[in-house]
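Quarterly update, task 2.4: NAX-bound model.
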Amino acid sequence: QSTPKKIAVTGAAGQICYSLLFRLANGDLYGKSQPIELRLLDLPQAQDAVRGVVMELEDCAFPLLHNIVMTDDPRQAFEGVDAAFLVGSRPRSKGMERRDLLAANAEIFKVQGRAINEVAGRRAKILVVGNPANTNASILIANAPDFNPRQVSSMIRLDHNRALTQLARKAACGVGDIDKLVVWGNHSPTMFADWTYATAAGRPLSETIADDHWYKEVLIPEIARRGTAIIEARGASSAASAANAAIDQMRDWMHGTDGRWTSMAVISQGQYGIPEGLVCGVPVMCEDDDYSVVEGLDLDGFQKSKLDKTIEELVGERDALS
Ligand code: NAX
């Protein structure tokens, strides 16, 4: 059997990880013949809860799960890893201003960025899930000068998957029939689910659905508000769907998209007027363990105004920290 792949997961005691860890141990990322080692990072006060999760992982007797490490030390968690899911972050507490929330998380991702810079495998893929995910990823990149920034992305895939299902329902097709959907921008209510290029079985979705009012007044705002709707219904934020999206994004990034598009938030090199250094949701294709941004799309006035709004928010988050 091959050497276990080392996967670090932060926020291991939290609710997303309560789904994510079991999916990883089941082989949902690397497949059914690749053993793995899990490195679980959480705060010192969460170690008892992590121990409980570890006991449950053990009780599943996953054949692929060769080793589990529990730690509150980022350097130990990231040492020589092949992949890392950065899920843990500081939630907003009562009376906390947005700026304080940004600053508290910036501190976490600064520390983790430095640790990754020093000890992570150079080909490791780092996926930031913890919010504000895009800005946390930018902070991490800025604090990991010797680590390739293209090996860092933040999660926009949950929003992409949410839009896929709504579009497939409306068009009465399978989610797998849809290609060229894009979710642009920040993982926040300013995100823009864009059907301009989307096709189902090769035919433009905007023609199949032919309802511009539904697109602009129902789809786009509903995808943006979906997280809130789930909190209202479930009394807790999305967890299993977030874990699923994290695996989808990482798996496509590693194993490729077969010429299809997906959405990833990656460091901007100035495409589409997105300022360099921001981590922003864009259309990508993945191949050979790497992504490439789909470039050269013509954006109309509506698309530009939507994109500008979400970029403005990302710039605001960056400026609030500087
Ligand atoms: P939980 O509050 O259940 O768990 C968070 C865990 O992170 C806790 O165990 C906490 O102790 C740990 N933690 C805090 N600071 C840490 C640090 N410095 N190092 C290691 N661990 C640390 O949150 P959960 O529901 O699991 O959500 C986790 C994060 O994902 C949140 O920030 C949430 O907003 C974000 N989400 C991001 C999504 C995305 O699409 N990008 C969607 C889902 C989710 O809302």
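Highlight for this quarter: The two ends are 48 Å apart (CA to CA).
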